[in-house]
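ugh finaly. both done.
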Amino acid sequence: MADFAGGLSQTIGPGGPFPDPLAGLPKPPAASVGGGAGIPYPAGPFDPVNAVPGLVPFERVGSGGLKAFGVDPQDLGNQGDGQSGRGAAGFVQLVGADFPSSDHAGSLARGIGFDWFDRWIVAPGRLDLGNVLTTQVRTLEVLNNFRRQARTWQGFTNNAGSGVTATNLPALPTVLQAFESFVVDIQISTNGPPNINGTLEFDIDQTPPDTIDVLVTGNRITIFPYHPQAPVRETLEFLSDIIPHDDGSEQRSSLREAPRQLFSFTIRTDNDRTRDSINAVITDWQSRVFGIPLWHEQRPLLGDVAINATTILVDTTFSDYRVGGLVMLYASDFVNETLEITAVNPGDVEVQSGPVQAFVAQDTVVMPTRTAYTRPSLDQSRAAIGPTDFSLLFETLDNIDLSDASAFPTFMGVGQTVAKPVIDRLNFINGNRIAEGYRRDIAIIDHETGPPLQFSPWSKSKPTYEYGFESDSRQAMWELRQLAHFVRGSQISFYVGTGRSDFKPNLDISDTSTSFDMPNIGFTQFYQQVTPRSDLRVTRTDGTTSLHTIIGSSVVSNAIERIDFSPGISPALPLAELEKVEFLTLSRIADDKVLFVHDRPDQSRVSIKLLGVPA
């Protein structure tokens, strides 16, 4: 066989050598280096003249070999003595003149061996700890992946902060033989800074000396498992940029990918241990990350959970369990565990590592858990003899977008280019009155010496009102939550009925009729079918509804006016079967907030402040 320098080296796999990529190219003048033939090599370390364009020339090493980017050909699997070599596991094989070769100048084709062999490797290259709820142990493997050389691991530096420890380091420096590795145990405790963001540095003897950094990130979390008093108040806070026009129209955009989620509740306890435990936790951890169970989403555990079991049987439908999130098994304030979710299925959740204690189904509930901050100021009140009340507010850190309006009908009214959701739930009245009003931009010119002058650039006033909904259905509340995410607070408008009888037809409505007469209320003079008062909803006594656009109106007499609409009403509608005809108001959330009041699991109320908007 010819010397290693006598032909184009090839990187091959199990299928044999690749075809010569230089076949057919012009050949430079022949020369001889180190007993080989075919590669021109003038005096000096490089050959800038005869190398084929686009290929990197070799550096000369003595008179019998080559060095590619500082890697000795001998280490690449060939001894330069006429014997072909093979990399570990057959990944790379470098061959000489007994395989098809070329007398063109060139370089080794770069393959996986260049990235894998003849270097140090620390794996994995990053430790993403996620939420640190209990002490964790992770492993790092330090590998000398040089194929023929023993190398020295010189040192180790821990820059990941307190609470992160390498528990089994060897005495350093230490020598690792070719292909020898050492597995380092990294222990992460719950004691330490709330945010973990640092590196573990491995100093090795490469030439030049090198350091391999492993990034370590995560959040230490303290669970806040104390059972609150009802109700639990949850607020979704969106953020919208609203640019008004002089005529009252708006351009709106959302500035948050997901709303902020706030929970406020009171914990009342006359248990000394619970009271003292809360005081201790708040004293040290108030500025740090808590784990907050979602009490309103608690579900019974459907099967006992053994120690280290990784499947928890629970109904997950219409619930906010998330892969990568947390789930709590709760038996009492002091018997509970929080675990990290790896999969969510219709009848169970799977967790990364099981509990360290067993849980009995009949004594345990299961809840999604969120990471959250609390506020700088927390209130506490206690009686001289009696219970202590803690008033708490938490803001979650891991909320996501749940947008989905598919559970609601849609309608495209006057001035709309796309169909908008229609809220078809009943309006909940808290007390015996509903707050309503009107808003209008009014300019007032007043010199204080004479009568003031005022006018408005808006064509119509905008109605304001509150909308509420109460349900003991988990599905209904979940659908309203998804709708709130879909409209992104104040950004996207939708349709809401007024909940009252705004139109009172005088006579039965015949099949396919596109108009009805009613008492003259001044609709033609004042409303003039201008959005948001340009559409209506007809509700029958059997609960069925139909949606219509008002296309015109006229005054029939001083007592009667006629409303024209499209499409027509069908089937015929006798007055005895008419529940109400109401305005269908194009509206948006007025203040970027949606309030949920959770009285107990699966029974909640929703409260929203709404503003009618023009098309």
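ok and the 2nd:
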Amino acid sequence: MQLIVLLTFIASMAATALITGVQHHSNQERVQSALANATERAADAVVKRIEMYQYGLRGARGAVLASGENAISREGFLNYSKTRDVTQEFPGARGFGFIRRVPANRQDSFLALARADGMPDFQIRQLAPHDGERFVIQYIEPVESNRQAVGLDIASEYNRRSAAIAAMTSGEVRITGPITLVQATGSPLQSFLILLPIYHGAVTPDSPEARMAQAIGWSYAPLLTEEVLKGLKLDREGLHLQLSDITDAHEPVVFMGQHTDSATNPDLLQYALSRHVYGRTWQVELHAQQAFVNQLNLLSPRLTALVGTLLSLLLAALTAVILINRQRHRQIVVEQARSAAIVESSSDGIIGQDLEGRVLSWNRGAECIFGYNATETIGHTLFNQTIPEHLAHEEHTALQRIATHETVENFDTLRRRKDGHLVHVSISVSPLLDDAGALIGLSKTVRDISAQKAAEARILELNASLEEQVSERTLELRELNVLLNNVLQSASEVSIIATDLDGMIRVFNRGAERLLGYGAEEMLGVQTPALIHLPEEVQARSEELSQEYGQPITGFRVFVHKSELEGAESREWTYVRKDGSHLSVTLLVTAMRDMEGAVIGYLGIALDLSQEVRLRREALAARDQAALAAR
């Protein structure tokens, strides 16, 4: 009893550990999913904010084209900018401006015009000297906060020049890689220029070459990442946003969100995804910390483990109480069993015999099966009554094995009724012991299986008939298949399983589902009969067959080798249900063949004998004990 209680506690703790592990895994998945969703929302918000600025660029382009590419003036651009509320319409933009293409050989004439256009001190400034075409910031409003940018040649720096050329040749909005604005040098590599090309005639040419030839400049806006994302509320408690430009996968550039508190608040998890932003590829990455996880209100695995441990202790205690009660009940049952009578209404024949074979008890079931009443059999042996002469050796063998304390396997045989007719029966034999445990005889449980034999014969007949009809009338194959399927599914009390040559289950009828507890969808095409057999039985049968046929017979061949050679094999097996319980069955295996006689699969038909065997043994044992006690 102590061992059972201990095993119960160990099993409960194992279940607790399993549930705790599953809970931990579930929590991890929920955190990962929440972080992924948060990252998706953050990425969408960032991209939406950046895409908003294209409308400001289109407005600035319209102002330039409406005035005329050579007629636009500083005053005209200022007047246009006053019609827009940049702060409200385009939060985060430092302003909108116009960049003009200036060939190197026309730089002096451009400077003269620019200085005459309201800015006498206008100069072209370069970040690095170059001899190519100038891309000069001519106008930007508001100019007060962007004065350092006026006159800057963006072609003098690689990132700015690359984005400008990409916009010009594509005819679409483009954004630079991370740069440092000349008007915001305190934020290195945290800014961008967003550019929209402007062409002669306000129509975007069809080819890149034509676009290069007809482009006059760009409308543009300088963006500082911190200002652009301000107000989006991308960071929440326990989450840290990091943005990187990964257009060049070998040299990614982090332009927002460098950790400042990673030592005090370490990251537990991170999630990253990429977005295409006007010709660049940005990586949006969220780092989750403990505060973020706490907000999800996850069930703690520690709490699960604690509750599981308490329940395991309670279950172990309850098991101990139940076992004590069962032990006391068993003692009472043993006392009552001495005066208990066999249930006379049993349909099985329950017969008690001494070691000489004389009948000690004979119930109504035996009377119904054989036609003899108790008066005619008690005190006599069965050799001259129910046992045919050619089967007398079965009775002798059973008596001898019981006398030597050997097990007698259940067997099917023929017995003779009082009217002389033979009847098919299934017999199980068990030793009969007195109160001291001494062997005093044997008990037999006899069951009339005539109906089952008839059913087996009928099924075999149907199977043979089907094979013959297939070979003779191939045109009726579909109808016969329907009929066979109906037979299989209607045989709810008979397990019918068919396999292919490799043992893979191809038919699993309702009777098999009911008998074994498996659904057809769990077995068809994925399992073999090995799943429902005891390995030790299969191994023992393998050794018998290997010795009988002088060759190794293992695995699936154990079930079908004999039937393949002899046409059919009927044998008792122990089936293993899905819930792990065992049952005894009579299994008939036949080889299925095509029209040419080649084996195409195997059919197994099983009848459940386990419950009847157990009831017969228990009833006979109790009856015999009662009979002996009464003598």
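summary for the 2nd one i guess: The chain has a mean pLDDT of 87.
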